[in-house]
Amino acid sequence: MAAAATMATSGSARKRLLKEEDMTKVEFETSEEVDVTPTFDTMGLREDLLRGIYAYGFEKPSAIQQRAIKQIIKGRDVIAQSQSGTGKTATFSISVLQCLDIQVRETQALILAPTRELAVQIQKGLLALGDYMNVQCHACIGGTNVGEDIRKLDYGQHVVAGTPGRVFDMIRRRSLRTRAIKMLVLDEADEMLNKGFKEQIYDVYRYLPPATQVVLISATLPHEILEMTNKFMTDPIRILVKRDELTLEGIKQFFVAVEREEWKFDTLCDLYDTLTITQAVIFCNTKRKVDWLTEKMREANFTVSSMHGDMPQKERESIMKEFRSGASRVLISTDVWARGLDVPQVSLIINYDLPNNRELYIHRIGRSGRYGRKGVAINFVKNDDIRILRDIEQYYSTQIDEMPMNGACPHHPVLFVRWGGGSGEPLDEGTSSCLFYSLTYAFLSLSGGSDLRSCCADKALVTICLPGAPAGTCLGTVSG
C-alpha cells in the first residue's frame, strides 16, 4: 500500500482533471477494425487490477486506452501512437499487469525506456496500479549499484523497467533471466529505435523467447521507424492518431522574436516572475548550454535547477524529487526531460532553443497540458528560426502566435474570478490569446477550476489587463 500512498496526490489531480476534459474524441487510423471499449469495467480486467486503477484516480479510459488495451491483452503485437499526456504509459502498464501470473516469481514483462528517470517513473506507476496484486517490479538503470540490481533480480521480479544498456548488462550476467518473458514494451519507441539505441535494442531482443509479444508506444512515429519494426514484430496492429489531431489543444503556443542569441537571456529574465506562477521547464539543445544558462541565471540571482544526462544519477534523482514536490519551480534541461516524464503542476514550457526536429517539439510542449490540463509553450526564435517554426506549425496543423513583450497588454478588461459564490464579469474574447490569461487559466485548472468566471478554489491567481499596463501585470496570489 505504500506505493499507492506516494501516488495519492498526483492520482487525485488526475481524477479531477479527467472529469473536466473529455479526452476520447480523437480520430485514429488503424490497420484493421479495432473495438472501442468505453469503460475499464468492460475490458475484462482482473478485479485486483481494477481496484488499483480506480485507487490511482482513473475513472474513464482515454482514447488510446479504449483502443489499445484489449488488443495488447489479446496478445497482439501493437504499435500505438497518441499525443503526449493522453495516458500511453497507463495503456501498456495496465496491459502488462493484466497478463502477469503473480504466482510465478520470474520476469514476465520487460519495458525499455530511453532515460533513467522515465524508467523509474514507469516502475512507480506499475507498483501503484498493481498495488492490490502484490506485484514485484524493479527499475534496472545505469548509474546505480550493480550489486543491488543483481540482488533484486535474484529475489524475483514480475516486471523489469529499465534502460537498454543496464538491462543488456544484466542479461549477459545471467542475473536477468529471459526464459519467462512474454512481453517487450518499447516506450518512446521513436527514440528507442533511433541510431543511439537501435543496436542495444536488437541485442536485448535476441535473448528473448521467439514468441515474445512486442508493443511500441510513442507520441510520434515517423515513417522510417515504422518500417524498421518489420524486423521484430509479427503482423502488428497499428493504432495511430491522425497527424492533424497531434496538436495539443489545451496548450497555448507563443513565440518571441529575438534578433540575436544573446537577447534570449534578457527575455528569459524578463519572464522569470511569470515562470514561477506554477512550474516551468526550459529546454536547451545541449548539455553545455544547460550548464551555461543555469550559471547565468544564478549569477543574476534567479533561483533555478538544472538536469542533463551527464549528471550523476543520485544528483538527477534529487533534482527530480525537488521539482516534483514543488520545492524547485524552474528546471532547465536537455531533451532528457522531454520523454514521457509527468509532473502534473508543470504548466509552462520554454524552448530556449527550438528543438532539432519536429517530433521533439511535441514531446517537449507535452510536458505541460498533461491529461487535458491547460498549459502554455513559449518559443524563443531568432530570425533564421522562423522557417523552422512555420514548418512545425504546418506539420502539426497548429497556430503559434507572436507574444507581445513590450508596451501595453493588448487586452483591456479586468479578469474577474467568481470567489466563493460571488459574481463574475464576462471576458473579452480576445483575452484568451493573452499569455498571462493563459497561465492564470492553467494555474486555476490545477486548483480545480475549469473557467476563470466560475472558479471557487482555496487559492487562485488573478491577472489584470488594463490599458497602458505592462503586459502581464499581476496582483499576485490571494487566499479565500
From TrEMBL:
Residue stretches making up the Helicase C-terminal domain: 250-411
Highest taxon in the source lineage: Eukaryota
Subcellular localization, as worded in the UniProt entry: Nucleus speckle
Record-annotated DEAD-box RNA helicase Q domain positions: 38-66
GO molecular-function terms, A-Z: ATP binding; hydrolase activity; RNA binding; RNA helicase activity
GO cellular component: nuclear speck; spliceosomal complex
One BP annotation, GO: regulation of translation
EC number: 3.6.4.13
Primary localisation category: nucleus
The Helicase ATP-binding domain, residue ranges: 69-239
Keyword rRNA-binding: no
InterPro entries: DEAD/DEAH_box_helicase_dom, Helicase_ATP-bd, Helicase_C-like, P-loop_NTPase, RNA-helicase_DEAD-box_CS, RNA_helicase_DEAD_Q_motif
Keywords of this entry: ATP-binding, Helicase, Hydrolase, mRNA processing, mRNA splicing, mRNA transport, Nonsense-mediated mRNA decay, Nucleotide-binding, Nucleus, RNA-binding, Spliceosome, Translation regulation, Transport
Keyword Translocase annotated: no
Motif annotated as Q motif, chain positions: 38-66
Family under the similarity heading: Belongs to the DEAD box helicase family. eIF4A subfamily.
Protein name: Eukaryotic initiation factor 4A-III
Lineage per the UniProt record: Eukaryota, Metazoa, Chordata, Craniata, Vertebrata
